[in-house]
Amino acid sequence: MKYVIIGKIGPRWGDDPARRVDQVHKKLDALKVKLETVYYTQGAYDFMEVVEAEPEAMLALSLWYKTKGYGELTSMPAFSMEEVTNALTT
């Protein structure tokens, strides 16, 4: 399933950003979460990602990210127009 993740970076992130990114990528690999795109943003959230993941993997990622003190994640299931159209016609 596809998810859109919006996130806020916590204070610990700034200690060593390159190392933190590496740790996150290793965790994504371990959880079999496929990162499709990432953008850093200005405003209420610091970044936005699109990933492909199982629901349990998304839960594990969110909990891990928070417990590491990296910040906050909000994940939302994402649907294609075809999926929405199919849901409306069933």
From TrEMBL:
Pfam families, alphabetized: GYD
InterPro entries named among the record's database cross-references: GYD/TTHA1554
Protein name (record): GYD domain-containing protein
Organism per entry: Hyphococcus flavus
